[in-house]
Amino acid sequence: MKRGDIILIKYPFSDLSSTKVRPAIVVSSDACTQKGQDAIFIAISSNISNAQATDLVFDQTNPEFHHSGLKNSSLMRTEKIFCLSKGLASRMLGSLGPSMTHKLNQKLHEVLDLE
To answer: pTM for the whole thing?
Structure first.
């Protein structure tokens, strides 16, 4: 598992009432991900009709989409950041290409107000 991988993982609802297996992107550094039992993830949603300003659209028409393993156009929900055990990941779907990785990095800088 490395930064930019898209995986299926069991993650909780924000109110901790339940969990669901959903796609997510690994955003923790490779060094951080390799040394610990946990990793940092960004949620992915296929419900693109409810896009927020902080979301990043990953459309099927994007030339990098076929590497993602996703079935439909999706939103990278950059405000939905969570740290979970890597053991909750059920399988690898694919990965982000360089262009989408760059866009995701820019969006994370914006959301987290990083310099």
So the answer is: 0.91
In the chain, alpha helices (H)? 30-35, 98-112
Number of compact structural domains in the chain: 1
Measure CA 69 to chain center.
12
Kindly report the CATH number assigned to the domain that includes residue 100: 2.30.30.110
Write out the residue range of the structural domain in which residue 82 sits.
5-112
Give the strands of the sheet with 74-85, arranged side by side: 55-58, 74-85, 38-45, 19-26, 5-12, 89-95
Q: Which of 2, 41, 3, 1 is nearest to 22 (CA)?
A: 41
**What are 74's two structure tokens?**
């999706």
Nearest to 73 by CA among 46, 50, 97, 36: 46
pLDDT in 10s for each residue of the chain, 115 residues: 999 999 999 988 878 898 889 999 999 999 999 998 999 999 999 999 989 999 999 999 999 999 999 999 999 999 999 999 999 999 999 999 999 999 999 999 999 988 7
